[in-house]
Design brief:
The complex is a heterodimer of chains A (178) and B (397). By secondary structure, chain A is an alpha/beta fold. Chain A contains three helices and nine strands. Chain A is elongated. With 397 residues, chain B is mostly helical. Helix content of chain B is 48%, strand content 12%. In chain B, strands 1-2-3 form a three-stranded antiparallel sheet. In chain B, strands 6-7-8 form a three-stranded antiparallel sheet. Chain B has a two-stranded antiparallel sheet with strand order 4-5. In chain B, helix 7 packs antiparallel against helix 13 (275-299). The two termini of chain B are 39 Å apart. Classes of the chains: A alpha/beta (178), B mainly alpha (397). At the A-B interface, strand 3 and helix 3 of A face helix 9, strand 6, strand 7, strand 8 and helix 15 of B.
């Protein structure tokens, strides 16, 4: 039982590229085509043994003040090894249009639910998922609420969300970061 | 047994049964679509979303401290722990930059452990009481709820609320403990331990209850890990993992948390990872929480002099830092009563979070239902739901 540090894990997880977030958190950028192969390696390599998918989530980079700006959807995998007690963060950047990533539900069954949630709220398709459908919103809901360009619907199935003359409050203005 | 009575041999047909969304044994508005094959469950599909309140979307629309009350509503059975998870995440985010570093006072850290563990006690009481009630034993539930009232009374004196507290804030806690609080908590714990002995006599050793739980819905350790089970559900399968001990946050590193794991407590018919193990692990955790509250009370420093410290030493001022937090992302996970409550927070450097993600234990627990329910008796479905202690607002968020 030896916990490896990020550099040692990154070394074994080629061709993923090691990156750090703006506040110094390390993560690996994985090409979508390599994701499943890499995840199986991370799970089965005796020195790595990432046996748990601790969390799978994502966020829309559209309004994030990055250089260069991006309009991708980041799908983020938090892996954890209960055997060695180390962690790893993987990210796959999915293009906004034709937003699809291979499913890892065959690697960790926990991904079945997580991926349904990301599909529902961020509109990422997971190819190879056994039952990819919405989990929180109704099946006939339009749009994906956590996308930064999501427009609040005025009605659902003919039921208006607002009274006559009422308006949605303006969304909070994101000032440029200082 | 199920194979002898299968559809194929009898030539009958399956019946589709809707359990919920309004069903007392589904602990909220969870809907299970159960296909029954006589008395045996052939397939069970959970249907979620009836309690979806877009809490993660709200997180992107309100300022950092304004999100704390919403965390209460993520899991109202253990709102203190839910507060703690989010506040800890924001504090860790601030700590990634030296300019916005925040230091939580020791007194606040002690109070956090006290309230979080008291809330764990009351949450587990609901869990074990409701599980017994699902199996037809109503009295233990009332005993559990009566003790939970004691915890609620302590919290009411502390912050004026009995269910959703909004008590733990970013940088500390909202109010100091009043001067009699330590004695009151100690008095509560003393009578609570006595009362728990009675609770255990009533139900834990009850043969009917034990036999209905023993060997039902066994989750192996490897399955529990692969399906992302956390907290008591994971430990019930014999996996020795508790974030309070293994990735200590706050004061937990100093307290030496002892972690109970499942070990086929039900005796001859029991198996590691059955419903009875998950039940017993919760009971043992209650005992451990009682000890942790006492330890934290011992470590509690005296209140600061008002003149010396304007906020009384229970809260760090983070107003300035929260207007310009560091840009970036952080993931923090804490051990809530229903297991890992993890927050992923992305900040774009403004006073409003860019993304708030909350990972909860009940959500992944539901992911294993479909697999576990196949082939069990219809009457055991409520045992399984009860043993996983799911709280629906936590699933749907």
């Amino acid at each position: 039982m030896t916990a490896l540090d990020f550099a040692a894990i990154a070394e074994r997880a080629k061709p993923a590229e090691a990156r750090t977030s703006d506040n110094g958190q390390p993560w690996l950028l994985v090409p979508a085509t390599e994701l499943v192969r890499l995840c199986i390696l991370l799970r089965d390599d005796p020195a790595l043994r990432f046996d748990a998918l601790a969390d799978l989530t994502g966020w829309d980079l559209l309004k994030y003040p990055a250089t260069p700006p991006s309009s991708d959807i980041a799908v983020v995998y938090y892996l954890h090894s209960l055997t060695h007690r180390h962690h790893l963060t993987l990210k796959v950047l999915a293009p906004r249009e034709a937003c699809a990533v291979p499913s890892v539900s065959g690697v960790w069954p926990a991904a079945v639910y997580f991926e349904r949630e990301v599909f529902d709220l961020l509109g990422v398709r997971f190819d190879g998922h056994p039952s990819l459908k919405r989990i929180m919103c109704p099946d006939d809901w339009l749009g994906h609420a956590l996308r930064k360009d999501y427009v609040y619907p005025a009605a659902y199935n003919g039921i208006a969300h607002l009274r006559e003359g009422q308006k949605f409050e303006a969304a909070p203005v994101r000032g440029a970061p200082a | 047994m199920s194979s002898d009575l299968a559809i194929e041999t009898l030539g009958g047909e399956r019946m589709r049964l809707n359990m919920g969304p309004h069903h007392p044994a589904t602990h909220g508005v969870l809907r299970l679509i159960v296909d029954t094959d006589g008395e045996v469950v052939a397939n069970c599909t959970p249907d979620h979303g009836y309690l979806h309140r877009a809490i993660e979307k709200i997180g992107e629309c309100v300022e950092w401290p304004m999100f704390v009350p919403y965390t209460d509503r993520v899991d109202y059975v253990c709102a203190m722990n839910a507060n703690l998870a989010y506040c800890l995440a924001v504090e860790r985010l601030l700590c990634t930059d030296a300019a916005t570093k925040v230091e939580v006072p020791l007194r606040a850290e002690c109070i956090r452990v006290i309230v979080a563990e008291l809330n764990r006690i009351s949450s587990h009481l609901v869990a074990v009481g409701a599980m017994a009630m699902d199996l037809g034993a109503y009295t233990p539930f009332l005993h559990g709820i009566a003790q939970r009232e004691g915890v609620n009374d302590i919290f009411e004196k502390l912050c004026g609320q009995r269910l959703t507290y909004n008590y733990i804030t970013i940088g500390g806690v909202a109010f100091d403990l009043h001067k009699d609080a330590a004695a009151e908590i100690e008095a509560f714990l003393a009578q609570f331990e006595k009362e728990m002995r009675r609770f255990n006599q009533l139900i834990t050793g009850n043969t009917i209850f034990r036999d209905r739980c023993a060997g039902v819905a066994v989750v192996s350790a490897a399955e529990a890990v692969a399906y992302g089970l956390v907290g008591p559900n994971l430990r019930g399968s014999g996996v020795d993992w508790d974030l309070r001990r293994d990735e200590p946050y706050g004061l937990y590193g100093k307290l030496g948390v002892r972690v109970p794991v499942g070990q086929a407590f039900a005796g001859t018919h029991g198996m590691i990872g059955d419903c009875y193990d998950r039940y017993i692990v919760r009971l043992l955790e209650i005992n451990e929480s009682v000890r942790l509250v006492r330890e934290a009370l011992k470590l509690l420093p005296p209140p600061a002099e008002k003149e010396a410290d304007p906020v009384g030493g229970f809260q760090a001022d983070v107003t300035k830092q929260l207007r310009k937090p560091p840009k970036g992302e952080i993931r923090v996970r804490t051990e809530a009563p229903r297991g890992e409550m993890g927050y992923v927070i992305v900040s774009d450097g403004t006073k409003i979070p860019y993304r708030v993600r909350c990972r909860t234990g009940s959500f992944t627990a539901c992911g294993i239902f479909n697999k576990l329910m196949k082939g069990i008796f219809l009457g055991d479905v409520v045992t399984v739901i009860g043993s996983f202690d799911i709280v629906v607002p936590e699933i749907d968020r």
